[in-house]
């Protein structure tokens, strides 16, 4: 089944060129189907890129999804046109009166800041608390994952000596979980971060379960509340060229930038990236939608609690 997306969202044309089936709201309203409602709190600076990356993965499910985008009232993005934000995004204040089957909270380029110093920290905390009673299952990504673990469980983050940047092999620690159905024993995940959370801090909370990690990049996926929350330190949603664009952007402004590891063919930035995470990324999001959203959410969405 296709995704239901807002009319004229830029991702629609991009994904149609990739032969991914999406439909706009006008056509979707003609179908008698109760779609799953997914809200995305997009904190990344390049909103359109992140929208497209996430929608691309969400499109790989046989279920119909109704996607909407949330923005913060306490923060004005600098890298996305105001017109785009006004057309496709709604404030938390407006959406807080609704319930959703699933939610995705992205990362943000503020990971070296103390949480309390983030200008929108108070609003983020309100959203985190709201999600626990208004969303069936929430996926927290990168900074969003660390912020969620800190807010709910007091898990600190630690600065890394150098940026965790590249493609790292992860090992599934709970392979029988539905989220890993169809997975191999190991899989790769893009990482791009300056901080980390540590196993010993998470293990101090029995309600948290580390379900995937890497000997190089550390904890990668934490599950809580039986799958109502997933905290993911990396970026399975990344497009093939995302790390390349980030590397070249930073290399042009600083002289201390290292190239992403395990990424380019022959470890040579002059050659194309080797995409090794796409299949598992699609499977992960498909499993999340199927087993942790569709199979558990009530038919009457107002019954979510």
UniProtKB/TrEMBL annotation:
Its EC number is 2.3.1.31. Gene3D superfamilies: 3.40.50.880. It catalyses: L-homoserine + acetyl-CoA = O-acetyl-L-homoserine + CoA. Keywords: Acyltransferase, Amino-acid biosynthesis, Cytoplasm, Methionine biosynthesis, Transferase. GO terms for biological process: L-methionine biosynthetic process from homoserine via O-succinyl-L-homoserine and cystathionine. Pathway: Amino-acid biosynthesis; L-methionine biosynthesis via de novo pathway; O-acetyl-L-homoserine from L-homoserine: step 1/1. Substrate binds at residues 163, 192, 249. Its main location: cytoplasm. One of its GO terms (molecular function) is homoserine O-acetyltransferase activity. It is an enzyme of class 2 (transferase). The record marks 111 as: Important for acyl-CoA specificity. It is found in: Cytoplasm. InterPro entries: Class_I_gatase-like (IPR029062), HST_MetA (IPR005697), MetA_family (IPR033752). The active site is at residues 142, 235, 237. The record marks 192 as: Important for substrate specificity. GO terms for cellular component: cytoplasm. It comes from the Bacteria. NCBIfam families: metA (TIGR01001). PANTHER family: HOMOSERINE O-SUCCINYLTRANSFERASE. HAMAP family: MetA_acyltransf. Belongs to the MetA family. Transfers an acetyl group from acetyl-CoA to L-homoserine, forming acetyl-L-homoserine. This is Homoserine O-acetyltransferase. It comes from Segatella oris F0302.
């Amino acid at each position: 089944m296709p995704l239901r997306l807002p009319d004229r969202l830029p991702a629609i044309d991009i994904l149609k060129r990739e032969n991914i089936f999406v439909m706009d709201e006008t056509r979707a309203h003609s179908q008698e189907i109760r779609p799953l409602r997914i809200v995305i709190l997009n904190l990344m600076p390049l909103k359109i890129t992140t929208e497209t990356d996430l929608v691309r993965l969400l499109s790989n499910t046989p279920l119909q999804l109704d996607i909407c985008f949330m923005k913060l009232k306490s923060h004005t993005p600098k890298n996305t046109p105001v017109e785009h934000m006004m057309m496709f995004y709604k404030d938390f204040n407006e959406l807080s009166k609704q319930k959703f089957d699933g939610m995705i909270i992205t990362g943000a380029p503020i990971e070296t800041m103390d949480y309390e110093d983030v200008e929108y920290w108070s609003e983020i905390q309100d959203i985190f608390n709201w999600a626990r009673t208004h969303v069936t299952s929430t996926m927290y990504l990168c900074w969003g994952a660390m912020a969620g673990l800190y807010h709910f469980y007091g898990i600190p983050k630690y600065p890394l000596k150098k940026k965790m940047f590249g493609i790292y092999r992860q090992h599934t620690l709970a392979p029988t979980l539905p989220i890993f159905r169809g997975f191999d024993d190991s899989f790769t995940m893009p990482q791009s971060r300056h901080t980390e959370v540590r196993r010993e801090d998470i293990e101090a909370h029995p309600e948290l379960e580390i379900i995937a990690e890497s000997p190089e990049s550390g904890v990668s996926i934490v599950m809580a509340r039986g799958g109502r929350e997933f905290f993911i330190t990396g970026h399975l949603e990344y497009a093939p060229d995302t790390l390349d664009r980030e590397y070249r952007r930073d290399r042009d402004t600083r002289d201390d930038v290292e190239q992403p590891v395990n990424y380019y063919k022959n470890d040579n930035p002059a050659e194309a990236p080797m995409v090794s995470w796409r299949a598992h990324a699609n499977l992960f999001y498909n499993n999340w939608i199927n087993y942790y959203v569709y199979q558990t959410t009530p038919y009457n969405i107002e019954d979510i609690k």
